[in-house]
Predict the structure.
Amino acid sequence: MTQPTKPNVGGMQRPVMNPTFVEFHHTTAKWATCWQYVVRGAKWLSRSLLTNPFAVRKPEQPVAAESPAKVLVRVAVSWAIVLPALCVVSAVGLVTTGTHPAPPPALLDPNSQGCYFESVTFNSADGTELSGWLVPAMDARRVIHEKDKVLKNRRPAIVLVHDVGQSPQQMLPLIRPLHEEGVNVLAVALRGCGTGTARAAGATFGLKESADVAAAVDVLRRTRFVDPSRIAVAGIGTGANAALLAASKDPSCKAVIVVNPIKSCDEAVVKRIAPRGRGLEWMKPLCRLTFELMYKVNADELNYERYSAVLGTKPSLVFDNGNPYLLSEGKRVSEIRMFCRKNLATQDRPAIGSAR
């Protein structure tokens, strides 16, 4: 038995051809309402700064005229109180935004390079939870070639450190070549990247990330198939600064690879934090000071010149041409591979049969 249809009251009903239009309209109205509140707040603040807060008069008492000098003094005092607070709030907002960059989408992992990997999690010195990709040098080809020896051999290892605002995905061009060279690879996801406490901790351009690198090195030292005396660190951008800082505090670090490090904290502040434009240069020192206070760090530790001793006492390979796509160049990757072959004493390269 069919159900009677409801009469069409109020005219013929037409389908909505673009249902997103209604949603967009509501969104636009919401932002327009928010903007009205912002404008009202600005007007209220302006009136408050131009009004004498200490004036007490009866309702029927006429408003007394003030001299221009008195008005000027009152306005100057009001702004002298409000302006520093506005500057501090602006600096805190800029530092927070600059040290919490939006993470890039995770599209690829070592499987895309034909390498088996394990996802590992560990904690930094301050308790920040970190993660990474551990790509063991042992694979099916080595098992066939070495048989029982593959379980006894301890191989060299390297920690790969990405730049600020990036992820371990940035280091993928190095993972397969180093894996083929017989090197265990750990690509670490630094603080400020990913989710959870790592994301909330914020990036410090290599200062606190050096503890993350040290924790990653410690993970490799405790791995049974890694030779603890042959561990290197490699980084790009601020990851290079983190690698240098970690190597300077770890005498047993075997070698260092540095790609396009920042030269000072001021460079990082200009690129990532401070506003750009005419008349805003005065914000740079304020942003640097706010950064140091918020994260309790010494920005002078980022000065590249302080690590000449590290680069002079340890085997090191430095690329400093500013090319952000350097890791995608086959010639540079070959140089990094040869450097690891020489300084980490990889001994099984003939078993791989890969490109030289």
Summary: Strands lie at 118-123, 129-135, 155-161, 184-189, 226-236, 255-259, 316-319. The chain has eleven helices and seven strands.
